[in-house]
Design brief:
Blueprint lengths: L1 H23 L5 H25 L8 H23 L3 H16 L2 H21 L5 H19 L6 E7 L21 H9 L2 E3 L26 H8 L4 E9 L4 H15 L8 H5 L2 E9 L5 E9 L5 E12 L2 E10 L2 E12 L3 E5 L8 E7 L6 E5 L3 E10 L2 E10 L2 E12 L1
Antiparallel strand pairs: 1-11, 2-4, 3-14, 4-5, 5-6, 6-7, 7-8, 8-9, 8-10, 9-12, 10-11, 12-13, 13-14
Length: 420
């Protein structure tokens, strides 16, 4: 399998190289294009072989090889845009920079991309009359990626493990969706896979069995107010009213994500504003009693009337080196996005669950799950962070669930929690 993977990587690299070489020499006639395609193939295949040979286990290919591959992909796109529109190097550079910056996702990179594109396009047009659009796109990607590597040194996503057993990654909830749609029936479908007894809308259960499972050097469950403890251990006794507060800068991107990804996927479809939540939100916990005595808890929230999912989360707890953690797995097709959170005390008997910790377990993990072998390939998404505060105000439960991406706050979900 490993050999087949290496051969497949060479083929892909060769195709990318051929397209890049042909596009970079497109204005010089068929013979030059053929030579360029061959040269591009040789360069990209050689780069792939060298990068793979030097790649260590659980590492992604070296930065230089990723920059080269990205630039090679950009070249034919730049050529096609220039051929269709007749745009000059400045416009091609601007659009190449804009696209590259958007792919970087981080807001600073989104702003940096067009600036680099304009600068590179202008510089090439001044020094190289008639510069090919493919060369402009190629140069923009190289300049942007090199500059980004110098300015943004902390990796936001890193390969954590490749093809390992679930026991090697205790902080990952290795439960995936077997179809392209998750939906509110996920736990029922999971019960058929696991062979356990399924209970829809289980009564008097919580998202955790006991807060005592979270005890550790930095957290004593005895200090938690009884009402906060009851909420976690008997969540179905409570009704939650939610007010989402989105930062203005993230709204356009989220609306696009929601239409193209969240709704078709049936997962992670957070309301945009309070008006949506006032139409009604239903909440339930489905459980699976496994043959080994364990219980799977799936907290499902959906829009009332339509049953359109807001989210489907599998809540688990585990212990490591004397410390307890909460891991919430959000199933995806053949994958899982897991948030592993460490508990902290909050003044007044509250409880904080956070992914921002000096401990080595908390964080966010995007994991591909091999359906045939159960092996996991996992990415640590270091650029994402969240913190859930549950606390009391005049004897009433409240919660603030705050999210950050690349260090920038983008969403706070504020909850009013009352008994049913």
């Amino acid at each position: 399998m490993a050999e087949a993977k290496r051969q497949g990587s060479k083929v892909v690299a060769g195709v990318i190289g051929a397209a890049a070489g042909a596009s970079l020499t497109a204005g010089r006639g068929p013979a030059a294009m053929a030579t360029g395609a061959v040269a591009g193939t040789v360069v990209m295949v050689a780069a792939d072989v060298v990068a793979r040979a030097r790649q260590r286990p659980n590492e992604i290919p070296a930065l230089w090889s990723r920059i080269l591959a990205g630039a090679a992909l950009a070249a034919p796109l730049g050529w096609a845009f220039g051929a269709v529109t007749g745009a000059g190097p400045v416009v091609v550079g601007l659009l190449a920079g804009l696209l590259t910056g958007l792919l970087g996702i981080r807001p600073y990179k989104v702003l940096l991309g067009p600036a680099v594109g304009l600068a590179v396009g202008w510089a090439l047009s001044a020094r190289w009359p008639g510069v090919p659009a493919a060369a402009v796109a190629f140069a923009v990607v190289v300049a942007f990626r090199v500059l980004s590597a110098l300015l943004f040194r902390e990796p936001q996503v890193r390969l954590l493990a490749e093809r390992v057993g679930a026991g090697d990654l205790p902080f990952v909830v290795p439960l995936a969706a077997r179809t392209g749609y998750v939906g509110t029936g996920y736990v029922r479908e999971l019960a058929q896979v696991l062979g356990g007894e399924y209970t829809q809308a289980a009564s008097d259960v919580g998202i955790v069995a006991s807060l005592d499972e979270l005890a550790g050097p930095g957290f004593d469950p005895a200090g938690v107010d009884p009402l906060v403890r009851e909420f976690y251990e008997h969540t179905t006794r409570f009704r939650l009213d939610i007010v989402p507060e989105w930062r203005l800068w993230v709204r356009p991107g989220y609306l696009l994500y929601r239409q193209l990804v969240a709704r078709p996927l049936g997962q992670a479809n957070v309301p945009m504003n309070q008006r949506e939540t006032q139409r009604g939100v239903v909440s339930r916990i489905d459980t699976i009693s496994r043959p080994d005595g364990g219980v799977v808890r799936g907290w499902i929230r959906a829009h009332a009337g339509t049953d359109e999912p807001i989210y489907v989360g599998i809540y688990t707890t585990y212990r490591r080196a004397g410390q307890g953690y909460v891991s919430v797995g959000f199933p995806l097709p053949q994958a899982s996005f897991t948030a592993t959170l460490a508990p902290l005390p909050r003044p007044g008997g509250g409880l904080v669950l956070t992914s921002r910790s000096e401990l080595d377990q908390p964080g966010h993990y995007l994991t591909y799950i091999d359906e045939a072998t159960g092996e996991l390939t996992s990415l640590a998404v270091d650029g994402f962070a969240e913190q859930l505060d549950v606390y009391l105000v005049d004897g009433h439960l409240r919660a603030d669930h705050a999210f950050r991406v690349f260090g920038l706050p983008f969403l706070v979900l504020r909850y009013r929690i009352e008994r049913k």
